[in-house]
Amino acid sequence: MKVRYYIFISAAVLLSGCNDFLDKVPDNRTELDNAKTISELLVSAYPNRAYVEFCEAMSDNAEDKGVAIQSDRAVEESFKWKDVSYTLQDSPTGYWSSCYEAIAAANHALEALDKLGGMDTQAQRGEALVARAYCHFMLVNIFAQHYDPATADKDLGVPYVTEPETVVLKDYKRESVAKVYELIEQDLKEGLSLIQDHTYTVPKYHFTKAAAHAFASRFYLYKGNWDKVIEHANAVFGTGDVASQLRDWITHGQLSTSVREKEYTSAEQPSILLLASSLTKIARYQEFYRYGFNSSLESKLFRSAKVNAIGLPWAYVLEKWQADKGDPITMLKWKEYFQQIGINATTGYLYAMIPILTKDEVLLNRIEAYAMKKRYTEALADINAFYSKRTLSYDVSKNVKAEDITKFYADYTPLTPFYEMDTEQAAFVQCAVELRRVEFVMEGMRWFDVKRFGIEIVHYPYGMPSQKDVLVKRDLRRAVQVPSDAIAYGLTPNPR
User: Fold this and answer.
1) Is the separation of the CB atoms in 432 and 364 below 8 Å?
2) Is the pTM of this model over 0.85?
């Protein structure tokens, strides 16, 4: 059933009057009459809000610490797997809105490109299509159940918007998850073939060829197309040495606090493929929330005697701030950027740079795909390359072997994706999943593995494990509820 819902137009626009809005182009700085101005519009084709806080809080990377220095309703409600009532930055509603605003920018660019024609605009078309695909991909993986070919044609997805907004209220419907994936793949394949890196002044803020291949490796990983994952991952790494292209945590961990904080999300970091500037509070408050990463999780993932299959201590650096107030732990992944609302103002907006795609993730994607193809020698090469940049006292004589992986992960909680795995495959996949967990702690990425592998999570109030709440496989709450405004305008809500 079709519904009426405004996705792109903000409340401020609605209050300013429909006619005024419809008389203006979407980017009122200039007319969209050449490749340069369209490129300027495409700067807005990326989400400017972050999923980090609410996704991390929903995962098993968060526990109730009992007390907090800073409160946040979206984090608390996400931890409890409630429908989040907070609607501003760092909330599901905020991220939903920013994705559809980015999609609208991409669609306006595509419309302008259709009118211009000509081969000299193919690069802009490619960026717009891949950016549109990425936004829909993130939306469907947050606000729907994970892709499963057995149910994807029945599971509610999200509206896939391919036309510019020209009216205040327009009919939209939620496509199935299968249909959304089909349309994502269509946009991704066409867009990737058109992207031209030389058109970008600062490539790390745009979908370059490498970034688009990285996105494709994640897309096909979620879909279970292992050959495609390997193909696109290989395109990212080329024929060069893999380890030298990864983030070097051994060197990074030795930097001073202020430098480490800045360098983690620097556009100069070779392992980063795509960065997004996001309106978010994470750089200032993330470690101070009541519901989040704590000493118990730090010990389990980073400090216990059994933290990895290579048997060496991690090079990751975690620090405690004001340890007597709510067990705050940080990895200094976020550098705060403050934008004043006026020249002499003391208030303003908090921003942080978010690494959307990295070579480190691509490597872990390829390890999974190699495992599923039973190409264990190549999977081991990637695993050891990863360890070489993330463990202390590493040397090649300590490289892990297939039997090390199988033995180490034998007693881990089984993963239950939509496809079958034998014992050895499962061990290698489990390795990739656990390496991804520690690599992206405090970045929200763990939630997507929780969904696609049906990982069962237990959350409970501080000190009261008997009051536990269990998130089971295919739990309806794994699909974050769509915004209340969307439901009010008729969009079908996720079942509860």
Assistant:
1) yes
2) yes
